[in-house]
Amino acid sequence: MKITNLGFPRIGRDRELKFALEQYWRGEIDQAQLEAQALTLKQTHWQWQADAGIEFIPVGDFAYYDHVLTLSAMLNVIPARHRQLNADGTAAKITLDTLFNIARGAEVNGEQASASAMKKFFNTNYHYQVPELEQDQVFELAFEQIFEEVEQAKACGHQPKPVLLGPVSFLALSQAKGEFDKLQLLTKLLPVYEIILQRFAEQGVTWVQFDEPILASELSQSWQQAISQTYQYFADSKPSSIKVLLASYYGDIQHHAQLVNQLPVEGLHIDLIAGNQTAAAFLPTLEQQKVLSLGVINGRNVWAADIDDIAEQVQSLINDYDEQIWLAPSCSLLHSPVDLDAETELNDELKLQLAFAKQKLNELTELGHLVTHPQSERSQHIRSLCAKRKQARSARRNEAVYQRLDNLTEQDFERGSAYKQRQVAQANALKLPSLPITTIGSFPQTAAIRGLRRRWRQGELAELDYQQHIKAVIKDTIERQSSIGIDVLVHGESERNDMVEYFGEQLEGFAFTQKGWVQSYGSRCVKPPLIYGDVSRAKPMTLDWTTYAQSLTDKPVKGMLTGPVTILHWSFAREDIEREVIANQIGLAIRDEVVDLEQAGIGIIQIDEPAFREGLPIKQSEWQGYLDWAVKAFRLSACGVEDKTQIHTHMCYSEFNHTIEAIAAMDADVITIETSRSQMALLDAFEDFAYPNEIGPGVYDIHSPNIPKQQDITHLLQKAADKIPVSRLWVNPDCGLKTRTWDEVEPALVNIVAATRELRRQLC
After folding, report:
1. Is 192 helix (H, G, I), strand (E, B) or coil?
2. Which residue, among 139, 133, 138, has the nearest Cα to 176 in the 3D structure?
3. Is 16 annotated as a binding residue?
4. CATH 3.30.1050.10: does it fit domain 419-759?
5. Which segments constitute the Cobalamin-independent methionine synthase MetE C-terminal/archaeal domain (predicted)?
6. In whole angstroms, what is the distance from residue 553 CA to residue 544 CA?
């Protein structure tokens, strides 16, 4: 039996990679300095894994921006607009800057090249850069970062196990630029993977991990054949010294057991946390003398595992198959914070119940000891700790919360009137122009604002002084929007550190870490709250700031809230009750805030649900069950208001075609979505479905430092107007402006207003 790992967080315990990247982008350090800091991080993480007893150290899980983007560069999948040309017109070598340009947008060869699209990685909150494939795509080995890392790991005395996204999942995650079947490219792609395996063999590698999370979905016959074709190809072509571990996660693959058991691979990893599969379906794999890696420690949450229970479940397999069994996390630990030892302010009872990435490695070691030495003194100590954790979790129930849930009726999930009647009432109350212009909520979080919050939290700034400073920022934000010509204003969210953490800090049942950061994309990290108990609202959370902002202007100011589904998905939620119950608890708390805002005279309230689609199970056949309770949780939060109060919601990075009915069932009066990178293509779903309510398609890609030109915005708005009636069309950026600077935001908004006014003259 071996203890193994699928991948480790790359950002560092103190977000060292984030800060190094941002220094590099600002020109404060050069590439050599960036790479030196990255190497220090990798060496630290490799040593932690070795110290925990991990026998094959994952290599290739590190990425400067995104591991899918790194693989795209490795395979020469670079969009034509981002191919830097030499003086003689030939393609220049792919560098780190090439990757950053693809992710962030840049000027290339004298032309502005837009960033590639960004989507959620399966059902996680990690974002990847979507590879763009042409019908005549040429694959070749073009970027060698992973080979350098193999040598770096070997130099540190480790036995590296390279980790790559498998060919079939890579194609599945890619975007076909044109009308063709992506699977047609598989035969051109496989020889490059073959070369990669040969290079690994030359470096002395023995195991290579290919991640194929696409197996957790319900694959058509052609995609199943692609899996068979791929791994038969590797079996026939790879060096005999190389063994392949096929890894799938984020869902069970028991429905593909027959397919998977017949694959000629030397090892299989299965996720025993997500879904209901058991190892029994894959025993034929073991009978063929393969390795079966059991994902028994949750790689996507922070709660300590009940390893005594896990030990009982796997004991018989260990006894029967011994060296053929590996113990591992369910998936890469990329989705977990780095190190619980960095938390110095959590109370001891809660900290006892937690395990971050570094501690999950130790849990694997402890699990291995339990199953191999069940009667030892150390094993008795491990079981004692498990018992204490279970006892601590057992006393969480808030009876008042459950009483309120029990008293809900169907009317609590319905608005007073249908949308058409509400639209008339809202038009009379708000008196907005055609194509009303708004923003998604946040404005630039400057260093001064972050410093202000930090001083207040550390007790260096008195509460009254802090409030006066925040009011000054809000006043400035309102004045800037008014002078630019925005129609529906926002207060800017300068008091908020994060759209989920801010609310969690004011809700019962939440706790917070100091350094529980996880990567969302690039240098963007989030610090999810911990939902450890029943959720309720003790007092209003946004009322004072919103009403102050409204007092400064005659224009409507939106109340800005985060929705229950997003708060749930972007938190580390307790595992002892159903997620539907947690969502409804949060929904009731947000509902209370919505009603308070309405009663205070706020006529537009936005309840953001950017993570709505994120909770979808990977298997489409399981979607409806999730969508039913997710829609109800949103409606519970939104349906306590009168017809004249306009409810907005915001979603980003969503493919709406398969969920459009559920989105319509949410019955928000206005939905704003990210569409600028797709050139309004995402609106096709709303047009085809004849979405009945109002829509604000984004015209400003806020994830890029590029300032959109007026003519480009006008072009996007014209495309939107071709798909959605102008009477139901809003104008807004793709997402919040928190991560941008005022130097970028103000000219962008000026161009949006100018483009909108031009279109009003044309169409209204």
Report:
1. helix
2. 133
3. yes
4. no
5. 435-757
6. 15
Read off the DSSP letter of residue 480: H
For 53-91, how does the pLDDT look when each residue is reduced to its tens digit (9 = 90+)?
999 999 999 999 999 999 999 999 999 999 999 989 899
CATH topology match: 2-393 vs 419-759: yes
Strand spans (E) along 299-433:
325-329
pLDDT value of residue 248? 97
Please check if 614 is assigned to a binding site. Answer: yes
Query: 209-248: per-residue pLDDT in tens?
Result: 999 999 999 999 999 999 999 999 999 999 999 999 999 9
Q: Where along the chain do its domains lie? A: 2-393, 419-759
3-state SS assignment for residue 508:
strand
Residue 497: is it exposed, middle or buried by C-beta count within 10 angstroms (0-12/13-18/19+)? middle
The answer to whether 441 is a known ligand-binding residue is yes
Helix (H, G, I), strand (E, B) or coil at 249: coil
Token pair of 296 as six digits:
């028994």
Cα radius of gyration (the chain): 26
Annotated catalytic residues are: 703
* Best CA proximity match to 98, nearest among 31, 7, 19: 31
Q: Is the dihedral of CA 567, 573, 574, 577 positive or negative?
A: positive
The answer to the question of whether 652 is labelled as a binding residue is: yes
Cα separations (Å) of 546 from 445, 642, 714? 17, 19, 31
Is 650 annotated to bind a ligand? Reply is yes
Least confident of 81-90, 392-401, 463-472: 392-401
Name the nearest CA neighbour of 559 among 569, 549, 573, 570. 549
Strand, coil or helix: 210: strand
536 is in an annotated binding site: no
**What is the identity of the amino acid at 277?**
Q
Taking the domain 2-393, which CATH number applies?
A: 3.20.20.210
Q: Is the pLDDT of residue 681 over 90?
A: no
Q: Provide the token pair at 687.
A: 């047009």
Average pLDDT, the chain: 95
247 half-sphere exposure, CB direction, 13 A CA radius: 29
Task: Quote the CA–CA distance of 674 and 115 in Å, as a whole number.
Answer: 14
